[in-house]
Amino acid sequence: MKPLNSYDKKGILAEEVFVEIFEQEDAIRRAQMLLSFQDRAKELGVKGQFDTMVKAFEKAEKETQQKQRQSQTLIENWTNFTGKYDSMKCGSWLAADNGIRTFNKDYSNEVIVCYHPIMPIGRMRNLETGEEQIRLAYKRNHRWTEIAVPKDIISSASKIVSLSKLGVAVTSENAKLLVKYLSDVENMNDDEIPIQRSSAKLGWIGDGFLPYDTEIIFDGDMAFGQVYESIREHGSWQEWLEHVKALRRTGRLEIKFSLAASFASILVNRLGALPFIVDLWGETEGGKSVSMMLAASIWANPDNNQYIGDFKTTDTQLEIRADLLNHLPLMLDDTSKTSSRIRDNFEGVVYDLCSGKGKSRSNKELGIRRENRWKNTILTNGERPLTSYVSQGGAINRILEIECGEKVYQDPQYTAELLKKNYGFAGKRFVQVIKKMGAEELREIQQKLQKELFSVDKMQKQSIAMSVLLLADRIATDHIFYDGEYISVQEAESVLVDKSEVSEHERCYHYLLDKINMNRQRFDAAATTEQWGIISEGYAIMYPQAVKELCRQGDYSYKAFLNWADKQGIIQTDGKNQTKLKKIDGKPVRCVFLQLNEFQDKDGFEPTDVSQEELPFK
Questions:
Q1: Residue limits of the Cch helix turn helix domain (predicted)?
Q2: Most buried of 369, 383, 537, 591 (most Cβ within 10 A)?
């Protein structure tokens, strides 16, 4: 560079002067040169022209830098993450291990989109709803993590911030940019990002069975993720098999029924049957919980808080759990430990579980949600039989109850620990056997077993449920255990209840008799308590309102009961009404005449078993 005093007015405004200044990469050296030339321009009286040229060169330099950045962006339009994932087109975004970046509108500054690598790696389309989920991979602390989230989560700046609780670095500040980045990457790589069919329900899907042998992947509620994760093989198949065969050789029905009920679950849908409950009840320390662990170990981890659930929840959560398991058994431990919400409507919950369908509900957008549905077996246990909590015949006749005796297991603690270490093998093998047999063969065997169980005195729905359970027992015995330890038809029949035990009207009648016997003072005119009527000649002659109130307390239908009682001849009528006039305290009152002895016929005679006493004549 020439000495400053050698520059005249024309020379100091020449282009080569400004080129030399702006070629200086050192910012301090450039500033020093500018100040020196500005002083010389001032001496020459051309400082204004000199400053105008400086501004022009600064603008030109800025535009050149923008073009360079744009060119660089076009070259680096692929993700550059280290790890197992292939690079993907990312347009104008800079995506490397140090995070996701872009430029502001004038390309003057970089803007951080996300502090760590993140990218879409797959899409899932749900078979039940048609809705899509997106699978994301993100890298934090040098580790890649994969998550699946509903598509609308990454499509909304207000919703995507919810991913922060899963470890994604997203806030309300960078949410919009992250939404745009993920959308661009997904759409630019539409042909490369695989789409898979998915389901939120386990069990049969066509000829496949989720999670064993199907390409369909699971996308269920993350709240029940531990249930899905628990369904796997672990430990030793041979150790589990030998121990369970030894348990079966003890001949205990509690063990055989628990196993058969668990296996039977995947047959319910195959046979077009309805869900049913198998309830194991009995005193504490009888082996109920171990039996449920045994049943669970067929499919999954039987340890606490894994596959087995309980009643300490809400009816909605139970529905979701049943819908998730779908064709796999729903297992609920200890009926006595119920939440207050279920305790207040226990009968309704049991009835809904047996119906295989949840309640219809609307969503936030006022549309109708997909109904929860399932077809499986439900295994429960408790110190009291499940039927003691319910009175509706429709629910009771789908419950098979087995009383748990003493010392079902010689060493229950050893069995429990072995099952926790070895599980999940038998279920997969059982599914393979069922697939080979086919629906027609299964139905033929089941109907044959149902005919063997049929009895005019037993409930038909219970016979159907039991035939499904027996079918599962036969198949498991022949193809899993090979030990000949079948549940006999006679043993199965002993579990079925008589129709009279299930009849709601029959139970209402016995309920009224019990109430009458417990409240004899209410039929004594001398007593000071509220009176229900009088007792005369083998009949409780009651005010209709008293009978109505008792039926209401017991959750029975007054009108339906009287219709049944009339047909059975256990009430007296006047021919037109199901009540009769009776003088009480000298006044005629219309009353219900309820027979106190159920074995008495319409003429007042009782049947006698002549085999038990000698006749007075021959």
A1: 504-597
A2: 591
Question: For helices 47-75 and 15-22, what crossing angle results, to 10°?
Answer: 50
Q: Helix, strand or coil for residue 401?
A: strand
pLDDT, tens digit, for every residue of 478-523?
Answer: 999 999 999 999 999 888 876 555 567 888 898 899 999 999 999 9
Cis amide bond preceding 385, omega within 30: no
Q: How far apart (Å, rounded) are the C-alpha atoms in residues 446 and 465?
A: 10
216 Cβ contact list (under 8 Å, min separation 6):
127, 196, 197, 198, 199, 205, 208, 210
Q: Are strands 195-199 and 571-572 parallel, antiparallel or unpaired?
A: unpaired
Directed axis angle between helix 460-476 and helix 425-437, to 10°?
A: 110
CA distance 483 to 246: 10
Is the Cα dihedral 147, 311, 335, 390 positive or negative?
A: negative
What's at 522, amino acid-wise? R
571 three-class SS: strand
Closest CA to 448 of 463, 434, 437, 462: 463
Which amino acid appears at position 357 of this protein? K
Structure tokens at 186: 């997904």
CB atoms within 10 A of CB 490: 8
SS3 310: strand
Residue 499 contacts by C-beta under 8 Å, 6 or more apart in sequence? 457, 458, 459
pTM for the model: 0.69
pLDDT tens-digit series, residues 233-251: 999 999 999 999 999 999 9
